[in-house]
Amino acid sequence: MKYIFVSGGVISGIGKGIATASMALLLKAAGFKVVPLKMDPYLNVDAGTMNPIVHGETFVLDDGTETDQDLGHYERFLNQDLDKRSISTQGSIFLSVIQREREMGYHGECVDMVTSITDEIINRISVFGKNDDTEIVLVEIGGTTGEYQNMLFLEANRMMKLKHPSDVIHVHITYLPIPKSIGEMKSKPAQMSIRDLHAVGIQPDIILARAERVIDAMRLKKISVATGLEEQDVVSAPDVSNVYEVPLNFEQGQLTDRILTKLGLTRKQHDLKEWRQFINNLSNLKNEVRIGIVGKYFATGDYVLADSYISVLEALKHAGAELDTKIKIDWIDAHDIVRDQSALESLNGIIVPGGFGARDVEGKIRAVQYARENKIAYLGLCYGMQLAAIEFSRNILGYSDANSSEIDPESKHQVINLMPDQEKKLLSRDYGGSMRLGAWECNLIDGTLASKMYDKKSISERHRHRYEVNNDFREEFETHGMKISGTSPDGKLVEIMEIVDHPYFIGSQFHPELKSRPLDPHPLFLGFIKAALQIKKV
């Protein structure tokens, strides 16, 4: 078994997840069975209870594991499903060790950071690698080198390298800024992050030099001298217009061959044809549509970030590449729509993504109403479907107080209510990992738009919710033009709703964006972009 540890330095958000996913893709294309593993330093047991503005999107796997967005990158680049073994938070590791101690699993020995915690880390990595005939495990270490938070992961890395020197390598991603006031690429921050690695006993084997542009010969030599590596082991990683270009940049920089050489492996094949075709499609798009994403998880201080909805954004790109269409995104704060809906007027399609809580919900409902009344393509994801049901109930069924019990428990017309099994969990404050999570089956109704998009009778999609459509209102929905087009196999849970007399108005209780892949776009997003194109032409 071979292991590649990946760390990052200088700044957070440097792109470790994309780099790890890219290396996994390249090694898979070279003919090896590869699996990625994220080691996250936070003490949360999983990512499910964290604020998306601070931490970014919560990505859900088929088995219901709530992870951070890097697992989404892994799945999209590798085009394969992962499971709970693919992520270990420091919180889950500490929890396992403490539970084992409570059960006398250590037979009375003293439990400490080193070696109890590091042994647990090493064991998880080793056991993970032994599954499914894996040949190479990539281990992304979360956080930034020099922090206290990820020191135990780095120590486990050092111990594994010491025990298996020919089977373990370390790839460090560092950053070379170009301060505007100086106008020159500076290598000192990169050198200092490498020194931080040296201080904990790790000599990196390969450096990925992140910068706004390609690293020049002078800077390359400085990094080489600082690390004691050959210059060919320092690979330039410049900014790109699209993250899917990163693997091809790495391949051009001979990264795959350097990794295989250091691991004592020989390339089995070259298989990047489909990926190159995808990039070519993405780079030469003839059409264009404008899509508004109406949400409330954009703002972080004075900045607007897309991390809370990264899978939605990527799913749109996948569909756009397939349909030769560039997707222009308008990030629309739901708070602003209550006062002014002019931001919606130039759109060809509107998405209301997942979310929770009452804040700014009226702005989202206004956006749903605008899409319905103006025949704009609409795709509601989880909460977006529930809000579509509320808007329809208010303005078509005539229930002016229609709402969700999550938003207004006093409403007489709670068209969205808490799932029966969730009430007890909320009363006992059982929030962590207790929603309806992971992949669930859905049966599609013949003759509906949803069944046409999927071209299947049964599908499996990923969920993350506590509330559902109130079945008491289903007949009224159907009678007035809101078709139930997908349900759970027992027929009790509404999974998909669509408006019959509309170019494209679909809401899903699940999150289709979580299963969209560059080489396999999701049917609902394909249908959405097709409809947006038609609307633009009219």
CATH class of the largest domain: Alpha Beta
Predict the CATH topology of the largest domain.
Rossmann fold
What gap, in angstroms, lies between the N and C termini? 58 Å
Widest sheet: strand ordering:
13-10-14-15-23-22-21-18-19
Mean pLDDT: 91
Q: Can you offer a commentary on this structure?
A:
The chain is of the alpha/beta class and about 550 residues long. It has 2 domains: about 1-275, P-loop containing nucleotide triphosphate hydrolases (Rossmann fold, 3-Layer(aba) Sandwich), CATH 3.40.50.300; about 285-535, Class I glutamine amidotransferase (GATase) domain (Rossmann fold), CATH 3.40.50.880. It is about 35% helix and about 20% strand. It has 19 helices and 23 strands. The strands form 5 sheets. Strands 13-10-14-15-23-22-21-18-19 form a 9-stranded mixed β-sheet, sandwiched between helices. Strands 5-2-6-1-7-8-9 form a 7-stranded parallel β-sheet, sandwiched between helices. A 3-stranded mixed β-sheet has the order 16-17-20. Helix 8 (about 215-225) links the parallel strand 8 and strand 9 (about 235-240). Helix 7 (about 190-200) runs parallel beside helix 8. The radius of gyration is 25 Å and the shape is globular. The termini are far apart. About 50% of the residues are buried.
